[in-house]
Amino acid sequence: MSASFFARRAVALRAAPLRASMASPARMLRTSAVLRADSHAPPVIQGEGGKPGEVPTDEAQSTGLERFELLGKLQGVDVFDMEPLESDRLGTKKDPIVVKSLFPTRIIGCSGSPAGSHDTIWLHLNLETEFHRCPECGSVSKLDFQGDPALLEGGHH
Protein backbone atom coordinates (compact mmCIF):
# COMPACT_ATOMS: atom_id res chain seq x y z
CA MET A 1 0.00 0.00 0.00
CA SER A 2 1.26 3.41 -0.91
CA ALA A 3 1.66 6.47 1.29
CA SER A 4 -1.02 8.25 -0.72
CA PHE A 5 -3.51 5.51 0.28
CA PHE A 6 -2.87 6.26 3.94
CA ALA A 7 -3.08 10.02 3.33
CA ARG A 8 -6.46 9.63 1.56
CA ARG A 9 -7.68 7.36 4.34
CA ALA A 10 -6.69 9.89 7.02
CA VAL A 11 -8.50 12.69 5.16
CA ALA A 12 -11.60 10.50 4.79
CA LEU A 13 -11.56 9.69 8.51
CA ARG A 14 -11.28 13.37 9.45
CA ALA A 15 -14.07 14.33 7.06
CA ALA A 16 -16.45 11.51 8.03
CA PRO A 17 -19.20 12.58 10.42
CA LEU A 18 -19.38 10.76 13.74
CA ARG A 19 -22.56 8.74 14.00
CA ALA A 20 -24.53 9.20 17.22
CA SER A 21 -24.45 5.46 17.89
CA MET A 22 -20.63 5.51 17.84
CA ALA A 23 -20.21 8.53 20.11
CA SER A 24 -19.89 7.85 23.80
CA PRO A 25 -21.99 9.96 26.20
CA ALA A 26 -18.83 11.50 27.66
CA ARG A 27 -17.68 12.53 24.19
CA MET A 28 -21.03 14.17 23.44
CA LEU A 29 -20.78 16.40 26.53
CA ARG A 30 -17.80 18.58 25.74
CA THR A 31 -17.05 21.43 28.12
CA SER A 32 -15.23 23.45 25.46
CA ALA A 33 -18.56 24.15 23.75
CA VAL A 34 -19.93 25.51 27.03
CA LEU A 35 -16.86 27.67 27.50
CA ARG A 36 -17.29 29.13 24.01
CA ALA A 37 -20.96 30.00 24.58
CA ASP A 38 -21.62 33.73 24.93
CA SER A 39 -23.09 33.46 28.42
CA HIS A 40 -20.24 31.32 29.77
CA ALA A 41 -17.26 32.88 28.04
CA PRO A 42 -14.05 32.97 30.10
CA PRO A 43 -12.48 36.37 30.56
CA VAL A 44 -10.03 37.39 27.87
CA ILE A 45 -6.66 37.93 29.49
CA GLN A 46 -4.50 39.15 26.65
CA GLY A 47 -3.08 42.42 25.48
CA GLU A 48 -3.84 44.18 22.23
CA GLY A 49 -0.52 43.05 20.77
CA GLY A 50 2.17 45.07 19.08
CA LYS A 51 1.49 47.50 16.26
CA PRO A 52 3.24 46.87 12.93
CA GLY A 53 6.75 48.27 12.92
CA GLU A 54 6.93 48.67 16.74
CA VAL A 55 8.40 46.54 19.48
CA PRO A 56 5.49 45.62 21.79
CA THR A 57 5.63 46.39 25.50
CA ASP A 58 5.01 43.79 28.19
CA GLU A 59 1.51 45.20 28.71
CA ALA A 60 0.74 44.82 25.01
CA GLN A 61 2.01 41.28 24.48
CA SER A 62 1.52 39.46 27.79
CA THR A 63 -1.26 36.88 28.11
CA GLY A 64 -2.77 34.54 30.68
CA LEU A 65 -1.24 34.32 34.15
CA GLU A 66 1.69 36.52 33.16
CA ARG A 67 -0.74 39.32 32.22
CA PHE A 68 -2.79 38.74 35.38
CA GLU A 69 0.35 39.15 37.50
CA LEU A 70 1.55 42.18 35.50
CA LEU A 71 -1.80 44.00 35.83
CA GLY A 72 -1.83 43.21 39.55
CA LYS A 73 1.66 44.67 39.99
CA LEU A 74 0.61 47.83 38.14
CA GLN A 75 -2.20 48.21 40.70
CA GLY A 76 0.15 47.44 43.60
CA VAL A 77 -1.35 44.02 44.36
CA ASP A 78 0.72 40.86 44.83
CA VAL A 79 -1.77 38.50 43.15
CA PHE A 80 0.14 35.33 44.06
CA ASP A 81 0.85 36.37 47.68
CA MET A 82 4.58 35.65 47.49
CA GLU A 83 5.39 37.13 50.89
CA PRO A 84 7.26 34.72 53.17
CA LEU A 85 5.41 33.20 56.11
CA GLU A 86 5.80 34.77 59.52
CA SER A 87 9.10 33.76 61.08
CA ASP A 88 9.38 36.38 63.82
CA ARG A 89 7.37 34.26 66.25
CA LEU A 90 6.52 30.67 67.06
CA GLY A 91 2.98 29.65 66.25
CA THR A 92 0.84 28.23 69.05
CA LYS A 93 -2.52 26.43 69.04
CA LYS A 94 -4.16 29.67 70.18
CA ASP A 95 -2.27 31.78 67.62
CA PRO A 96 -0.96 29.53 64.79
CA ILE A 97 0.99 30.61 61.72
CA VAL A 98 -1.85 30.80 59.15
CA VAL A 99 -0.98 29.56 55.65
CA LYS A 100 -3.43 30.60 52.91
CA SER A 101 -3.88 28.13 50.08
CA LEU A 102 -6.02 27.68 46.97
CA PHE A 103 -5.51 23.92 47.29
CA PRO A 104 -6.55 21.57 50.12
CA THR A 105 -2.89 20.65 50.76
CA ARG A 106 0.28 22.72 50.94
CA ILE A 107 3.91 21.98 51.70
CA ILE A 108 5.76 24.59 53.75
CA GLY A 109 9.24 24.80 55.17
CA CYS A 110 9.87 25.72 58.82
CA SER A 111 13.31 27.08 59.65
CA GLY A 112 12.49 28.11 63.22
CA SER A 113 12.08 31.44 64.93
CA PRO A 114 14.01 33.58 64.31
CA ALA A 115 14.38 32.37 60.73
CA GLY A 116 17.34 30.08 60.22
CA SER A 117 17.55 28.84 63.81
CA HIS A 118 17.32 25.22 62.60
CA ASP A 119 17.54 23.33 59.32
CA THR A 120 14.45 23.55 57.15
CA ILE A 121 11.83 20.97 58.09
CA TRP A 122 9.18 20.38 55.43
CA LEU A 123 5.61 20.10 56.69
CA HIS A 124 2.68 18.80 54.67
CA LEU A 125 -0.34 20.89 55.68
CA ASN A 126 -3.79 19.52 54.90
CA LEU A 127 -7.39 19.89 56.00
CA GLU A 128 -7.56 16.50 57.74
CA THR A 129 -5.48 17.80 60.66
CA GLU A 130 -6.38 21.19 62.11
CA PHE A 131 -2.90 22.05 63.43
CA HIS A 132 0.53 20.97 62.22
CA ARG A 133 3.53 21.21 64.55
CA CYS A 134 7.19 21.43 63.55
CA PRO A 135 9.04 18.58 65.27
CA GLU A 136 12.19 20.71 65.68
CA CYS A 137 10.96 23.99 67.22
CA GLY A 138 7.31 23.22 68.03
CA SER A 139 5.85 26.05 65.93
CA VAL A 140 2.20 25.42 65.01
CA SER A 141 0.81 26.08 61.52
CA LYS A 142 -2.73 25.95 60.22
CA LEU A 143 -3.99 25.72 56.63
CA ASP A 144 -6.53 28.36 55.57
CA PHE A 145 -8.19 26.87 52.47
CA GLN A 146 -9.53 29.61 50.18
CA GLY A 147 -9.96 27.63 46.98
CA ASP A 148 -12.77 26.02 45.03
CA PRO A 149 -14.92 23.77 47.27
CA ALA A 150 -15.14 21.25 44.39
CA LEU A 151 -11.50 20.36 45.14
CA LEU A 152 -12.60 19.05 48.53
CA GLU A 153 -14.98 16.62 46.85
CA GLY A 154 -12.37 15.25 44.47
CA GLY A 155 -13.17 17.58 41.56
CA HIS A 156 -10.29 18.39 39.22
CA HIS A 157 -9.64 21.39 36.99
TrEMBL record:
Binding site for Zn(2+): 110, 118, 134, 137
Keywords attached to this entry: Membrane, Metal-binding, Mitochondrion, Mitochondrion inner membrane, Transit peptide, Zinc
GO biological process: mitochondrial electron transport, cytochrome c to oxygen
Membrane topology: Peripheral membrane protein
Localization per Swiss-Prot or TrEMBL: Mitochondrion inner membrane
Source species, domain of life: Eukaryota
Coiled-coil residues: none
UniProt cross-references to InterPro entries, sorted A to Z: Cyt_c_oxidase_su5b (IPR002124), Cyt_c_oxidase_su5b_sf (IPR036972)
CDD domains in the cross-refs: Cyt_c_Oxidase_Vb
GO CC annotation: mitochondrial inner membrane; respiratory chain complex IV
Recorded GO MF terms: metal ion binding
Record region (Disordered): 39-59
UniProt key word Cell inner membrane: no
Similarity comment text for this entry: Belongs to the cytochrome c oxidase subunit 5B family.
The protein's name in its UniProt record: Cytochrome c oxidase subunit 4, mitochondrial
Protein's organism: Acaromyces ingoldii
